[in-house]
Amino acid sequence: MNNLIEQGHRPTRLRLGPMLGSKRLRTASVAIAGVELMHRIRKGQFKLRRLCIKVSRAPEIWNAALAA
User: Fold this and answer.
1) Number of domains the chain contains
2) From CA 40, how far away is CA 12, in angstroms rounded?
3) Residue of 68, 19, 18 lying closest to 40 (CA atoms)
4) Are 35 and 15 contacting, i.e. CB atoms less than 8 angstroms apart?
5) Of 44, 34, 22, whose CA–CA distance to 68 is shortest?
6) Percent over 90 (pLDDT), the chain
7) 27-42 mean pLDDT
8) DSSP letters along the chain, please?
9) Which of 14, 17, 38, 49 sits a CA distance of 20 to 30 A from 7?
10) Domain range for residue 45?
């Protein structure tokens, strides 16, 4: 079980490791949420239809996805 968890967050650790701007909890949590959301979208685990949005522009989709 622990191995699966370690393997699951390895890409997140590698992506966030070199970042210097995560001194505040809010900054770190937003960055981690964004990276995790991108992983979920890439793996097909996040359904955009579930958001019930009518726009198709990237900023609106991104804001709605982060708010979900």
Assistant:
1) 1
2) 12
3) 68
4) yes
5) 34
6) 0
7) 78
8) -HHHHHHHHHHHHHHHTT-----SHHHHHHHHHHHHHHHHHHHT---GGGG-----SHHHHHHHHHH-
9) 49
10) 2-67
Show the tokens assigned to 67: 């708010």
Any idea what the Cα angle at residue 34 is, between residues 31 and 36, rounded to 5°?
A: 110
The amino acid at residue 29 is S
Q: pLDDT tier at 44 (50, 70, 90 boundaries)?
A: confident
Ramachandran assignment for 19, one of left (phi > 0), alpha (psi -120 to 50 degrees), beta (any other):
beta
